[in-house]
Amino acid sequence: WLYLREEKERRRLARRQEELRALALGQGDFQLLDHTGRSRRKSDFLGSWVLLYFGFTHCPDVCPEELDKLGRVLQLLEGDGDARRAAPYTVQPLFITVDPERDTVEALARYLRDFHPRLLGLTGSAEAVRAAGRAYRVYAQAGPPDESGEYLVDHSIVLYLLGPDGLLLDYYGRSKSEEQIARSVRRHMDTYRPLPL
């Protein structure tokens, strides 16, 4: 019975891995600048768990709410060490702008001061940012400017979970609570097996 249960779980994981490969989300690399001016590639985060959010610093409400929620998820995970684990979970949070024209390195550095201290902001040329967004099928469209030249950017509101191999493992919409996200991330960490290349 145990063998059959293990075999069933192995098949389920293999099917899930094939589904993720078929989605082709998040594959490839990107090269952007972090909010300290350092060049970063997606491959820099291999070996780490990553929670990735696309947004912009001029967002009046949704992005700050989602980044606050991301910070609370990290707090839940960081406080989750127990007797089964040598250390609490650690996850690298990433924020990639969808508005590189206004979200410079300096603007990101100022903006991110209000959020989790490990949150890393990424920006770059318009093309590099678009390429990173396309890899995750992120929708982003700048609206018309108002009289003062300010504009909003309509964009996807999704938090992506990347495993240590850099591949997408899950995603979370706005309706998911921090507790639900933290529970899902823990489950992925507990059952993680790298995809065979």
UniProtKB/TrEMBL annotation:
Domain of life: Eukaryota
Binding positions for Cu cation per the UniProt entry: C59, C63, H155
Gene Ontology molecular function: any one: metal ion binding
Keyword Metal-binding: yes
Record flagged with keyword DNA repair: no
Family: Belongs to the SCO1/2 family.
This protein's name: SCO2 protein
Organism: Psilopogon haemacephalus
Gene that this polypeptide is encoded by: Sco2
